[in-house]
Amino acid sequence: MAKELSGAGLRGQSAGETALCTVGKTGSGLTYRGYDIEELADKACFEEVAHLLLYGKLPNQAELDHYKTKLMSLRELPQALKSALELIPKDAHPMDVMRTGCSFLGNLETETDFSQQQDVADRLLATLPAIILYWYRFSHDGVRIDTLNPSVDSLAGHFLAMLHSDTPNPLHEKVMNASLILYAEHEFNASTFTARVCASTLSDMHSCITGGIGSLRGPLHGGANEAAMDMIEPWQTPDEAENAIMEMLANKDKIMGFGHAIYRERDPRNDIIKKWSKLLSDEVGDTHLYAVSERCEAV
Fold first, then answer.
1. For 178, what's the count of Cα atoms within 13 Å in the CB-facing half-sphere?
2. C-alpha dihedral sign at 278, 134, 185, 45
3. Which homologous superfamily is 46-216 in?
4. In this predicted model, what pLDDT tens digit does every residue of 171-189 receive, in sequence order?
5. What residue ranges of the chain are covered by domains with CATH 1.10.580.10?
6. pLDDT digits (tens, 9 = 90+) for 243-266
7. C-alpha–C-alpha distance, residues 234 and 280, integer Å
8. What predicted TM-score, i.e. pTM, was given to this entire model?
9. Minimal CB count within 10 Å: which of 48, 52, 72, 274?
């Protein structure tokens, strides 16, 4: 069930209508075009979900193969964009890199007609991971990676292959795929609302998405995940975490990453990614952060 929201700003106000997503209403509390998020995360690949959201239907096998091939063909970055990414310092925030890369690409591949929107969306799906990883590998390792990589047909696998210059670990690819699905859509969140406001002025897609990235970068939106990790990483034991959380509660400090403003009972995405988190921690034989986060959740 969704919480009844009220307060300052746009809390509790209707931002518009959407056929893409319901939050806090039916099934697990999150659906994409009527499909429950738990079913999609368990049975679908990210490309199927992207096709569902962008084109209105889950693809059959032939349509999925065609869509994957299309996305693979759109991965290459223009040389001018690569040169610009090489100028961004090593200590830049990845969200800033993505924002700059998206905006710069809009200068190189300008839109001339609104009918191009679907193709621009697919191009951005294919290139945004490459933008982040090209900058990261060049700034941190001095490596100019090949962003095409035709041997990997999934976006999740392609991201990991660019990151490690190796065939992706199957478990890691499954986790990445699930994470991409869980974050693919969330109704009228701040970044979506920002992009829609920009679109309402008849601006171009690159400007709209750049604005959305800027909103997502904020610590009260997408940055909350990063803030949660910054909070729990220093704690060495669950007991230490519990004591710190209790002190924060007593001081009425904000605790990032636990609970959600929309969901009354639970965020359905949490149970899904929690399962994968446990598998990852078991695989590497380091479960202390998982145990710490579980204690934080329990408190």
1. 21
2. negative
3. Citrate Synthase, domain 1 (1.10.580.10)
4. 999 999 999 999 998 877 8
5. 46-216
6. 999 999 999 888 877 655 555 566
7. 20
8. 0.87
9. 274
H helices present in the chain, as ranges: 37-43, 46-55, 61-73, 79-85, 94-108, 117-141, 155-164, 170-182, 190-199, 205-216, 223-232, 238-250, 268-284, 288-298
Is the CA virtual torsion 197, 199, 204, 209 positive or negative?
positive
**CATH number for the domain whose boundaries are 223-298:** 1.10.230.10
Distances (CA, A) of 25 to 5, 29, 43, 268: 14, 5, 22, 12
* Per-residue 3-state assignment (H helix, E strand, C coil) for 111-171: CCCHHHHHHHHHHHHHHHHHHHHHHHHHHHHCCCCCCCCCCCCCHHHHHHHHHHCCCCCHH
Asked if residue 298 has pLDDT above 60, the reply is yes
What is the sign, positive or negative, of the torsion defined by CA atoms of 181, 183, 189, 191? Answer: negative
Task: Say what percent of the chain tops pLDDT 70.
Answer: 90
The pair of structure tokens assigned to 189 is 């969140």
Average pLDDT over residues 7-36: 74
Query: Over the stretch 59-98, which tens digit does the pLDDT of each residue have?
Result: 999 999 999 999 999 999 999 999 999 999 999 999 999 9
Nearest Cα to Cα of residue 154 among 189, 135, 118, 178: 178
Q: For residue 256, what pLDDT is reported?
A: 76
Report d(CA 181, CA 161) in Å as an integer.
19
Residues contacting residue 176 through CB under 8 Å, at least 6 positions apart: 156, 157, 159, 160, 168
